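Two proteins were folded this term; both appear here.
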Amino acid sequence: MSRDDVKIKYTKLFINNEFVTSVSGKMFPTINPANGKKIIDVSEATKEDIDVAVAAAKAAFKRGSEWRKLDASARGLLLQKLANLIQRDVDYLSKLESLDNGKTVADSVFDIGCAVDTFRYYAGIADKSCGRTIPADAGLFSMTRREPVGVVGQIIPWNYPILMLAWKWAPALAAGCTVVLKPAELTPLTALAVAALAKEAGFPKGVVNVVPGYGPIAGQALALHNDIDKIAFTGSTVVGRLILESAAKSNIKRISLELGGKSPVVIMDDANIDEAVEIAHNAIFANHGQNCCAGSRTFVQAGIYDEFVKKATEMAKKRKVGNPFDETTQQGPQIGEVAFNKVLRLIDTGIKEGAKLQIGGTRVGKEGYFVEPTVFSDVTDDMTIAKEEIFGPVQTILKFNSLDEVIERANSTTYGLAAGIVTQNINNALVFSQAVQAGSVWVNCYDAVIPQAPFGGFKQSGIGRELGEEAMKEYLEVKTISIKLPTNVSEAKKQ
């Protein structure tokens, strides 16, 4: 199948289990990043549409509704059905994802497999969110119960459209919330397709709503809405600040934020160098470098630095860039013109500031938004490419001498999303893992993200956690119930 064979089935808003035209009738284009041409126009949600979607979600969450009357185990079964339907349609969904996003079809298939795993994990724990009894003083019997927070607004990015949808929907629905999801305006198509599968799976009306639109309009309307009880956002730290501000200005809604990163990958001189080169390569070049936890600062110990740079350059040189629908392609285009220009601008800045360009640095082809796999050596901490999130296929290789030195330098950033170390020394691994300021630390691997383990950031990389039991707790309130006990048996009998 080629990009021209992908049929677009859904382009309207999904509200209350129906595909509907936006109130204003506005449409916006979604672009194929492989050629810069319009794929199709999609209905654009504005504030009025957000109001309609939130009202539907609020009605679905109302006490006594079909959704609220479902047992937790029944919610799990619905999530399992949705996972099965996504798996059934993986061929179509992967092609649609690659058309809209530009990632290779193989990457899309992998992402969708991870999304299926995520839905299945939360299907399994939907009925396992337990309160506890508390040995209270003053003759009280006290206990806690966990209850769904309510109507949730969710805003996801363009780099992993279906996977980020799964990360947001699965824990929220397992907890018993209802959701209004705004997909990224650059990649709205697969969210609408999965919404249709949610209806097919049997989710009641209003439980799942999808409202494509622009961040400053639809996203802001969600963040400011007084009937939204929680907002969950994945994206840039800049926009995360705006989400926090809107939550405070409105109803002090609950917040979870998964934001940017400038994550270090540390290569010790005792590492197997070929293995280390491959780990570091995949850490930055996976998904075209468009990954919030990408290993975008490669720190290499001085004793192996020159050899590492040589091998890293050779590996980048072999990386095939091209048509996402070609099975031999390893890297497709950047998501769009803005991102493409930013990557090229930062590459140019790296050259001007004195980093040594080993390979790459230019555009590939004459159409679409393709960037050569790029490797810089002789990078120093004060350079722009060592501080700013490039979000592209650009490896920056820095030199260090000691473990203590590299820990201090790794932590010298406003971010704290992830970190990695490659070493054969368990003491190095343990010291680094405990000292580095990052929400995820990977030893002799990178980006090892699984549904069972929490994912999130320190510092300006976010608030709260995705995945694992911790993510489900983000969608639950804790209620404490205390009951006065009788002081003696005779009093109990009177009552």
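Next, the second protein.
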Amino acid sequence: MHATVGDQLVQHGRVVGQHDKVAEIVEVMGQEGNPPYRVRFEDGHEAVCSPGPDSEIRHKAHQR
């Protein structure tokens, strides 16, 4: 998983009815775009995370 600042991290809901969590990557703390990432969620909360298999990166070049 590789990301750059400005990409979105999407954590998919794990159970029926649970919404996806979308966060903007504000800092890449690993080498060469690898995790961990500092992210900012839509409500302004920031966290450091190492995404698991239920997550995806949406690169800013592909967002519309």
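The beta strands are 8-11, 21-28, 37-41, 46-49, 55-58. The chain has one domain: 8-62. These notes refer to the second protein only.
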